[in-house]
Amino acid sequence: MKYLIALITIPLLLLTTFCKPKDSKENINKELAYAETTNANPFALVQLFTSQGCSSCPPADRLLDKVKEDYDNVAVLSYHVDYWNRLGWKDPFSKKKYTDLQYAYGSKFGDGRVYTPQAVINGSLHFVGSNEAKMKGNLSKFLKNTAENTVVISEVSKNVNTVSFNYKLTGGSTDKKLKLALVIGSRETPIGRGENGGKTLLNTNIVVQEVAVSASETLGSLEINIPDIVKETDELSLIGFVQQDDLVITGATKMKV
């Protein structure tokens, strides 16, 4: 599961401020010229809304890890929400903007309510994230369809504070954004208090930072800051996806840093 070139679509709700040019567009174009002939492959992106303070979430976290290992053409993201922090354990990966994203999905899907663990596939449907039968069935459904957008990431470079990379997009770009998430591949956390007090929890592909640009910028370079929560021993990856304004995802790509 080293590189996976896939695709993307959805409106982006989480922005970043760390974008800047790196190379000339001529050089980037040479590096990524082969992307013009890349075929759109079937793909799926699973976004799991979870919390270390929620007693129902560990089975979903384990299932997400299993999906990551079992499917080459599926990308997974773990978004840690902050509304469970009041119960005695503050999830170190939780952010309000991830809760805001989940509420945006809640509005899209109907009544505006949120719950954990909630899995969303391709920004198009949701279900309880620990339900393995629904996970497999929905992945099977989406993996029959080709993506509308293709994203290629290249020239990935990591230093102490940042990860920089080049990207190229193909496919329609109207009312879409390209979003790239920096994720910690896996982390075990001893939980001191709250509903999971005394347990050690495994979390997978934890989103710790994001950047976003308009999909109309089909060629470019980006930098993403590495936050302090990342340890030297953590394995990092980039997950890229394109979102439409209606939150539908039409393609995704993943690459280890």
From TrEMBL:
InterPro entries: DUF1223, Thioredoxin-like_sf. It holds the Pfam family DUF1223. It comes from the Bacteria. This is DUF1223 domain-containing protein. It comes from Marixanthomonas ophiurae.
